[in-house]
Amino acid sequence: MYTLPPCLFFDLDDTLLDYTTSGRKCWEELFLEYAPRFGVPVEQLASAHQQVSGWYWSDTERHRMGRLDLRVARRQVLQLVVEKLGSDRRALGDEMADAFTLRRELLFSPFPGTIETLQELQRRGIRMGLLTNGNSEFQRSKIDRFNLERYFESILIESEFGAGKPDRRVFLAALEKMGAMAAQTWMIGDDLMRDIQPAQQLGLGTAWVDIENAGVPAGSPIVPMLTIHSVADLL
Q1: CATH class label, 7-18+109-234
Q2: Which of 24, 69, 130, 166 could serve as 155's disulfide partner, Cβ 3.0–4.6 Å?
Q3: DSSP helix/strand/coil, 192
Q4: Ranges in the chain, pLDDT < 70
């Protein structure tokens, strides 16, 4: 058992919003639709995309630049996929990337119980802040779509602030803006490296949202204070 602190910081994607599941579903649909147009089996297109995407997003600097302009990043990934397929259909690659950007934003939604949890936390008088990486256009659209702003005293978005997690300046700025002490604040997020580790280094409590129910990876140097499977588990 634990007692919640007076202040909580939340990540957005894959913490409050089920973003990864919607992405997988969207790509599955697009592989089925575009493989015949590329003239390759669905499995070949899916495999090429998995390999290229894994490589592209594995690099810290590419990840940082890519998340600040997802439209461009997705086009870059698909251009590499086109090359891997030995195709010259570059325009079709751009079309597929843009189709993902459009459709994916329509598919995601909050995890079950998320809105009810935020409402209850607010009712209890717990102060909340939102810390999210990414581009303001995309992140503000998500926040507005689900009317999330009303729950948070502070919202810090990477492209607006000028730095993103795991940069310690993000956490320090959020603490300062809310007049909160690290020892009385928890960071709640799904990313061990970007959410949990920097928060721990600054003395915040941490709750890792293990959306895959896979547990902390063996040998991980990052061990969260608390592991939950959804933010609803906080109550």
Answers
A1: alpha beta
A2: 130
A3: helix
A4: 1
DSSP code of residue 217: P
CA 43 – CA 5 distance, rounded (Å):
48
Q: Where are the beta strands (DSSP E) in the chain?
A: 7-10, 127-132, 154-157, 185-189, 205-209, 226-228
pLDDT of residue 226: 97
Q: The tokens of 43 are what?
A: 């499995």
Output phi, psi for 189, to 5 deg.
Answer: -165, 170
Here the tokens at position 235 are 């109550």
Residue 143 burial by CB count (10 A; 0-12/13-18/19+): exposed, middle or buried?
buried
Q: Domain boundaries in the chain?
A: 7-18+109-234, 20-107
Task: List pLDDT tens digits, range 67-85.
Answer: 999 999 999 999 999 999 9
**Per-residue pLDDT at 209:** 98
Report which residue type is found at 156. L
SS3 234: helix
Is pTM beyond 0.85? Reply is yes
Sheet holding 226-228, edge to edge: 154-157, 127-132, 7-10, 185-189, 205-209, 226-228
Contact 156, 173 (CB under 8 A): yes
* Closest listed residue to residue 152, CA positions, set 132, 130, 125: 130
